[in-house]
């Protein structure tokens, strides 16, 4: 049997939720037309506002109309969707939201939910750059076990999480075959670190890495790097978008994962007598 195909998606979200939803719909249809069984969408695929007030006010719970629309897209196209991180409204909290990655199966059901653990906070007095995700987002406190899908076991993360190899190694030890990093990476850091970090996560875990991406100018304050990418467990880039709204397609070869792990059995060589086994305690941090 042929290996299953996946699609990594790239888009430029704005504060226009309807337009963003239409883009998700079109890219999902395109992915299905190219025989992908799952499409991966970037962080903030629901919207990207330019101020804290709107970011919080526009958020919806996971039983809201936006996620309901995503479920219909998945069901109507008979395709799985990775959507993250969505702006999830929280009950009894009008000041904060969660940055949440969900997996929807082809029947339109949510089968995985992860809330971003590492929040991107920068308050640099020297450069005047202040980006404080914790001003309006509550961090997640759980490593979610990998989700079984038609392409393999998905380990869920979001954007800034990629800078912390402990999380990726924990997911690997919990059985992940594919690591996902839906992102809205800033242009400057993306140009310097995007590819290097993602390839490192693939090499050290011997997993596929799939990083959907925001790209281009969202508003006067925000520009994203783009370059949505699929990387194999040897660290080779096998598919990548450029700087436009589009998809890239690649196959997932679970046999290749096993071959690489057999030929380079790093897990057999870890000195857990010197340091703890990351992920040996599943669940909460």
UniProtKB/TrEMBL annotation:
Domain CN hydrolase: 4-254
Pfam families xref list: CN_hydrolase (PF00795)
Cell membrane is among the record's keywords: no
A GO term for molecular function: hydrolase activity, acting on carbon-nitrogen (but not peptide) bonds, in linear amides
InterPro entries, sorted: C-N_Hydrolase (IPR003010), C-N_Hydrolase_sf (IPR036526), Nit1/2_C-N_Hydrolase (IPR045254), UPF0012_CS (IPR001110)
Keyword annotations from UniProtKB, A to Z: Hydrolase
This protein's name: Nitrilase like protein 1
Organism of origin: Dufourea novaeangliae (Sweat bee)
């Amino acid at each position: 049997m042929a290996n299953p195909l996946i699609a990594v998606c790239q888009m430029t979200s704005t504060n226009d939720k309807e337009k963003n939803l239409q883009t998700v719909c079109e890219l999902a249809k395109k992915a299905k037309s190219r025989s992908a069984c799952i499409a991966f969408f970037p962080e903030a695929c629901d919207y990207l506002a330019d101020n804290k007030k709107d970011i919080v006010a526009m958020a919806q719970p996971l039983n809201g109309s936006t996620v309901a629309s995503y479920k219909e897209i998945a069901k109507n196209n008979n395709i799985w969707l990775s959507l993250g991180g969505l702006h999830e409204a929280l009950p009894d909290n009008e000041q904060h939201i969660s940055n949440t990655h969900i997996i929807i199966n082809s029947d339109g059901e949510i089968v995985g939910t992860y809330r971003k653990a590492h929040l991107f906070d920068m308050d640099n007095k020297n450069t005047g750059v202040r980006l404080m995700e914790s001003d309006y987002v509550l961090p997640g406190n759980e490593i979610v076990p990998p989700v079984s899908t038609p392409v393999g076991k998905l380990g869920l993360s979001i954007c800034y999480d990629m800078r912390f190899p402990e999380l990726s190694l924990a997911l690997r030890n919990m059985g992940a075959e594919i690591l996902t990093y839906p992102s809205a990476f800033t242009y400057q850091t993306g140009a310097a670190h995007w590819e290097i970090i993602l390839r490192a996560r693939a090499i050290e875990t011997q997993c596929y890495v799939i990083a959907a991406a925001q790209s281009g100018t969202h508003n006067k304050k925000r520009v994203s790097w783009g370059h949505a990418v699929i990387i194999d467990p040897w660290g080779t880039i096998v598919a990548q978008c450029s700087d436009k709204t589009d998809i890239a397609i690649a196959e997932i070869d679970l046999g290749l994962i096993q071959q690489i792990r057999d030929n380079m059995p790093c897990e057999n060589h870890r000195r857990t007598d010197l340091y703890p086994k990351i992920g040996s305690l599943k669940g909460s941090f």
